[in-house]
Design goal:
Elements lengths: L4 H39 L3 H51 L1
Helix pairs in contact: 1-2
């Protein structure tokens, strides 16, 4: 019998949510960078500023999405670590008392 089935379920959910956050974050960052580049373009007449503003927003957004993805997958692995520690502790206790 597997113990802590909800931790396994939660780990699976974290994996899916992590990948969704990464994909939507990258797409959203690109879209936001384009919008920011166009908005700044209406305020200033220097095209290099438009490109730089849009690129900075896109890069920062993608980095943030990557960090969220990394955190969610690390939390997933921590759940598996907790499960493994419990199993190893139980096995050790059974061997020493049995």
């Amino acid at each position: 019998m597997e113990r802590y089935p909800f931790l396994r379920f939660a780990a699976g959910v974290l994996r899916v949510v992590g990948w969704i956050a990464l994909v939507l974050g990258v797409i959203g960052s690109i879209g936001t960078g384009i919008v920011v580049g166009m908005t700044v373009g209406g305020l200033m007449e220097i095209p290099v500023i438009n490109i730089l503003a849009g690129a900075m927003v896109t890069i920062i957004g993608i980095m943030g999405s990557f960090l969220v993805w990394l955190f969610l997958l690390a939390a997933r692995e921590a759940f598996y670590l907790f499960i493994d520690v419990e199993q190893n502790t139980r096995n050790t206790a059974e061997r020493t008392t049995g």
